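Progress against Task 2.4 (sequence-to-structure conversion) is shown through the following example record, which the project officer requested during the mid-term review.
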Amino acid sequence: MKIGLVGLGKMGSNMVLRLLKDKHEIVVYDRSPDPVKNLEKQGAIGAGSVQDLIKKLPSPRIIWVMVPSGEATTQTIRDIASQLSPGDIVIDGGNSYYKNTVMMAKELTPKGIHFIDSGTSGGIWGLAKGYCLMIGGEKETFEKCEPIFKTLAPKDGYLHVGPNGAGHFVKMIHNGIEYGMLQAYAEGFEIMNASSYDLDFAKISHLWNQGSVVRSWILELAEDAFGKSPKLKEVAPYVDDSGEGRWTVAEALERNVSAPVLTLSLLERLRSREKESFSAKVVAALRNEFGGHAIKKETV
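Structure tokens generated for the chain above:
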């Protein structure tokens, strides 16, 4: 298929490479010219503007938007939609708040423009391993775009979960669960770090992945992180949050659902900004491992 992709950060660029590898034609645009030039060398078709990208796509056009959530996504989609024709498709692959996604779909539908929300998980490892895609929108539109999803995802790694908003809703909950999982591992390592034993956390992470009930990809990443720095001395105990955990907790409150683990894991991220915390070091290191999220360096 020939599609456009707007937004060439870590994930956007890697998604383009994965699509190119499977012989899709990809027209790319980013506000920064450097990633466009880099991907042109890999076989992508570069565009100098959104208008240029649209001109280089056949009708009906399919454009995947991969920019930071919030106002940047809203304005980018509105800019693209203002230049599209009925029957064209816009896919939001970022971490948009699902209520904003529903609003955007209602805004585009009267113009005859189809909208897909694709919650995308996989971080910097998605190029090699594939992305888990949680997809919302009209079933017919989903089916038109399915060859794209098949390429981006591993086997059984994508699913049409419901109408517009459902994809980003499921991704929001996914990220809320991630907060709790990271916090549980981090607190366990903090208790071990406070013990009188001289423990090798990299080896313990590896051990727990050999048949243990707590085995996971996150523990594989923990092994990598501790292998690089056994006590994470250069990692500052500061953990950022990108919004999804807050949205998940807000949703739980709105629906009268008890979610103490997810709520406390969010509050622990806030606590990490106030005082020394080894568990915060663990979460910061793991977020860097799976998503390439920046870490603050510990000052000596």
